[in-house]
Write a structure and sequence with these properties.
- It is built from five helices and four strands, in the order ααβαβαβαβ.
- By secondary structure, it is of the alpha/beta class.
- The strands form two sheets. The protein has a two-stranded parallel sheet with strand order 1-4. The chain has a two-stranded parallel ribbon with strand order 2-3.
- Helix 3 packs across helix 4.
- The longest helix has 18 residues.
- The chain is globular.
């Protein structure tokens, strides 16, 4: 998700208002089906843009390998958008794997990797909920589960990543 700094506080406030009951975060898969359309529409109305890097791979490709390819492409995309900071949802011990990709790019002096990178828990940064909604709606649309992606598609550029 790409959000201008001047918009971020308002976006966070809107996202907090979308939580259901006592939920501390928004999470696409945990939402009740009847809330998904309204949730997608609300996110679609926010002043945000998204870039999703997706690798359609078979079961023979390790998901961490696919993630590394997607992360590398995402760094290229963020550089092209002149993003100064990237915030990823922390996977705790797994953050190290992402940092290894970024560090390798930095050692190679790739300008795409010079963005500031932070790993935060979803509860600490509502902006991370945007990525969850976009990714959830997109994947469910691909599977034919729902069409909520259609109200978000104009906000998002999907880049398909192929294994080199």
């Amino acid at each position: 998700m790409v959000v201008a700094d001047v918009e971020m506080d308002d976006v966070r406030s809107e996202l907090r208002g979308l939580r259901s009951g006592k939920d501390k975060t928004l999470h696409w898969r945990r939402e009740r089906p009847e809330r998904l359309r309204a949730l997608a529409a609300a996110v679609g109305s926010l002043p945000v843009r998204a870039v999703a890097t997706v690798m359609m791979h078979d079961a023979g490709i390790d998901s961490e390998r696919a993630r590394r390819f997607c992360l590398s492409q995402l760094l290229r995309e963020l550089h092209g958008l002149q993003a100064e900071r990237a915030v990823f949802e922390s996977r705790q011990a797994e953050d190290r794997k992402d940092m290894q990709v970024i560090a390798a790019w930095r050692r190679a002096k790739r300008p795409e990797a010079m963005v500031r990178v932070d790993f935060l828990p979803a509860i600490a940064e509502p902006g991370l909920w945007l990525a969850d909604v976009i990714a959830g709606a997109f994947m469910w649309w691909l599977r034919g589960t729902c069409d909520h992606w259609l109200v978000l598609a104009d906000k998002c550029r999907v880049v398909e990543v192929n294994e080199p």
